[in-house]
Amino acid sequence: xxxxxxxxxxxxxxxxxxxxxxxxxxxxxxxxxxxxxxxxxxxxxxxxxxxxxxxxxxxxxxxxxxxxxxxxxxxxxxxxxxxxxxxxxxxxxxxxxxxxxxxxxxxxxxxxxxxxxxxxxxxxxxxxxxxxxxxxxxxxxxxxxxxxxxxxxxxxxxxxxxxxxxxxxxxxxxxxxxxxxxxxxxxxxxxxxxxxxxxxxxxxxxxxxx
Length: 210
Hints:
By secondary structure, the chain is of the alpha/beta class. The protein folds into two domains: 11-22 and 92-206, HAD superfamily/HAD-like (Rossmann fold), CATH 3.40.50.1000; 25-89. The chain is built from eleven helices and seven strands. The protein has helices at 25-32, 37-47, 50-57, 62-72, 77-85, 99-107, 120-129, 142-145, 152-161, 176-184, 199-206; strands at residues 11-14, 21-23, 91-94, 112-116, 138-141, 169-173, 188-191. A five-stranded parallel sheet has the order 5-4-1-6-7, sandwiched between helices. Strands 2-3 form a two-stranded antiparallel ribbon. Helix 1 packs across helix 2 (37-47). It is globular. Mean pLDDT is 96; it is low at 1-5.
């Protein structure tokens, strides 16, 4: 679904997880828990929760976040430690339908940027593994800023750092609150719903050369 005017802004700003890279914690924990979907769901809902992971995105170290949970839930120690020990098994790689769009836009002279809730050292490791992540003219990483989306402050950091006006940016994210914040700041938006949004078609409809 797009929330974007017909005249496309000159800059395209990507979220990373579940927009161009697949973030799938159950992929790891189905193996950890031998395919027990109820245990996978319980663990990721009540132990290693999205809220807990967000604090690592905000800048808390992986070690500190892990040790905090191990102290709180010692009976879950092994699967808690698996979260970051086997982090690559949750980040399953570029999304074939969307990752090529970064290169295509950049190759056609469209400035591309990223604003992402991510741990900086992990993102830099991803850049070493997947070259397209180096095409961004600028990246704002939450752990560096001690700010996470949907806080409008992280968007303001982005706009100020790269001397951009919100009206000149199209922001793409899979999370509705992040989209809502960007829209309130004056950005055009595409809510990229995994499995539902045809991002290439949405960009092409707006006039982007992809």
